[in-house]
Amino acid sequence: MSINIPRGTQDILPGEVEKWQYIEKVARDVCRRFNYKEIRTPIFEHTDLFLRSVGDTTDIVQKEMYTFTDRGDRSLTLRPEGTAAVVRSFVEQKLFGNPSQPTKLYYIGPMFRYERPQAGRFRQFVQFGVEALGSMDPAIDAEVIALAMEVYQSLGLKKLKLVINSLGDKDSRTAHRDALIKHFEPRIDEFCGDCKSRLDKNPMRILDCKKDRDHELMKSAPSILEYLNEESKVYFEKVQSYLTEFGIDFEIDSGLVRGLDYYNHTAFEIMSNAEGFGAITTLCGGGRYNGLVEDIGGPDTPGIGFALSIERLLSALKAEEIELPLEETIDCYVVGLGDNASAKAATLVHQLRKNEVSAEKDYLNRKVKAQFKAADRLGAKLVGVIGDDELERNVINVKDMDSGNQEEVLLTEFIAYIKEKLR
Ligand code: HAM
Q: Best substitution site from 78, 257, 277, 312 to test ligand 1's pocket, by max atoms within 8 Å of Cβ?
């Protein structure tokens, strides 16, 4: 019996992988322009890290983590998201002590969540995310949002909707929490078991419930925006005015609560409103998480960031029918005819490669016609043809596949000739 790929994961094959590389390159380039530096953290962390950061009443922690015990009896978890690990590293590696602050980081890597697989929802998916630690300036909230928008726009996406909200500071949230308990408590019996258990522990999570989303009490639930204290209100207004100043359109949605517990103040999501995008329209999510660094044992440091998955980005590109400008051709194919010339072709191809020219040859002992076909399939710009006769005369024929022109070139001048032709 053959073994299949695990549910919710995918193989990314040549032909498709070029798109991933292109997107990663664009993301890295945008980060360079915005002055964010790459950080790489482990794929697994101590389970406690996620309990303390993502929150033990969230779906991610309660239902979706890949947790295992290693041979040393430690509980480890495949990371379901990137923020917790970045903050752990910020604390552990004392990045707060660096002279250049705020600490602006980005990451690209696989994340793991045991979710029900469907279009746009995988069990292993790749997030690109950024985290800015150490600044409580509303300009950096706008910068982080602008960075996410810039990645999408650099790839040609247009049908985007940015939704923002403020979850306020601790005091605002406590006031809101009390109002939520008052609102839901009298009729909590009409809600699912998860909601019931969240009422006291974390009533805001009820607003995020997928099962009870259509209950009438959901729509009439008190909005966090009514409970923002003056400071939180002013902060949120400043973020909005920066976004307006940057020319970034947004909508305010007081129901946007995000699925992770560490947020306060600014929360945001970017959706695709392209037709045919499918049911899950959220491309990107993020927000501010003042207090998280302290929760993980570091000094009181504010933070904000976002993450987006490449999988959903690709779906958005498809929905908007955007073709990425991928370079899929090869510079030169060397056709060898006969044993000696074929051996010479191997050396020539090697020399081309050493000289920054992408090159290929035949390894299946194919006839000339089949070798030309292979060159064609690879999109070779130039094809060198060498037979035993040419080899004896120390020459090679080079065909320009665009113009169809052919020239005989001395073997000693072959590399220089090819490089010149490609310029
Ligand atoms: P999140 O909203 O859980 O936030 O995930 C962010 C993004 O990851 C989503 O908007 C979506 O694009 C993608 N994503 C999540 N789950 C899946 C899945 N199963 N399949 C495919 N894509 C998925 C976070 O992860 C936070 N760490 C974001 C953040 C960074 N907040 C502050 N800094």
A: 312
